[in-house]
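Next comes this protein:
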Amino acid sequence: MSTHDDPVDDATGQLEDVALDDDTPRTRQLAAPSPPASHPHEPDDAPPESEPHPPASGPDAAREPQGDAETSDQAGSSSRANASLADDDTHDDDQGRFEAVSLDNGHAPHAPDERNNPSRSSPSPTASSPPHSPSLASTAPTTVVDPSSSTHVDTPTGPPAAAAPDAEAKAKPESSTPAAAAAAAAAPSPKKLVSTKRPTVMQKVVSMTRQRDLPPKPREEEEKHLSMLAEMYAASREADKQRRDAAAHRASVRAAQHAAAFPSWEAHILPNWRVVLHDTAEGRRLRQLWWDGTMPTRWRGRLWALCIGNGLAVGKGAFVQAGERAERLRQAGRLAEVERAAREDVERTLPALHMFQEGAVMHDDLMEILVAWSVYEKPTPRYPRGLAFPAALLLLNMTPPEAFVCLVNLVQKSFLRSFYGEQDEIEAYYRVFDTLLADAMPKIYANFSAQVVRPSLYLQPWLSTLFGAFLPLDLATRIFDVFLLEGDSFPFRVALVLLEVLEPRLFNPNLDELAAVFAGTDRGALGVVRRDKGLLLADGGVDPEGRVETDEVYTEMGATEERVFEGLERLEWKEETWARLVERELPEVV
């Protein structure tokens, strides 16, 4: 007969070990009452007990030799059972409140004599599983997790129940051979059902809102914090639902606006786009349609070409001729640097579309346009960083020859000529923007002056790509629409609005973190985007295959289409001030 000498865990209610003996009448009555009809922790298909009084009190009873040693053990255990009978009757109700908890560590608990005597074979999982009874609901072994270590400690919570006769009969032939004993020891213990109606022993002791190496909270504080956590989860789910609903509503409103504006575009603007420049009621209405971003996609390329024009009289065969010259320079070895810079720029152009990167469907067309522009009417080929973005927007709406003609005229007639050319002219535009910033947002200007933040940190990347490298494609396309209508002043107005949107993040004294905001790598916004896209792993790492685009970070920081154009409507802009500043700083351009 086997007894358990291990100390009992405090969390189990400090139940006393009782060794049951089939020769003690009072012990038999306690160990084997009449089986109940059902038990809350017992499966419905559990086999009924064959005998009300099992002949053995534990899995080791079938293997213990009968003799004087057994008589003395029985006498000692009988006296201990009689002495603790009153305590068992008193704490019967308390024991019923405890539940059998198993974390399923992969092997059944062993008695102390089995660990000390390797010659004995382990009982089978079937034989070691005690039957359930109402008075012995806490007799199943409880697995307790030690917070200070990662090991599992199996402690008995009461006297072991007697094994069923059929299970004991099955254990005898299995333990007769070493192979059967090894297979029985390797078999996992059966999982036990845990009720969810009331807290388990572990849930009563371990705090769910505090780390394990700290003392547990009071129960009232624990319940309060769990309630607050549930409220935060509910609020987060509600906020996500509201964002999805708002996005769906905006999409439906935009679709309705496009449908309502289509007849006006077809009947009035497309035949003569200059009608929007007339200072009449009809002209102002049509101009507002242009600002609202309702330009039909099918006519965008045609309208862009009309707005840009062909003031340089670039011939229809200019694209082919520029390509032939590029091929001659390539064979002479004078085009390697230009192609390398253009290829790097193309790789970062609108990556969410997957249309311009290496091997994509429009990669070769874009490279041909950029290389042709680099050699067109230039004695020395050169490629400016950022040119791929306006070229890609044109190529999405035109054929390559048309896009090349528009690109040559657009760069030559706009401020892009300075940003793709001489550094002195870029500095002049920086001075113009500083004056505009000081007038519109004096706090940001004073902060930038104190931290020596020059416009080259943010204005040059924004304007050289026409915001295509930082804002979503729909917003960048809408900005391009109005830029062709309004002229050079409009991108500078957009830059002022973007600084207003990013203002809460622009007072960081750390220049590296401030530069990360402009580059679209701000840690806070980046973490939120990764969380929303499910790129954060359980161990705190980041999914290496996940990718976060710069426009997603800018959107998280507030640079949405609605907010940007609402800011443009609120901005107090005077075109006369812009013209005066440009004339002062760049008299040769005017």
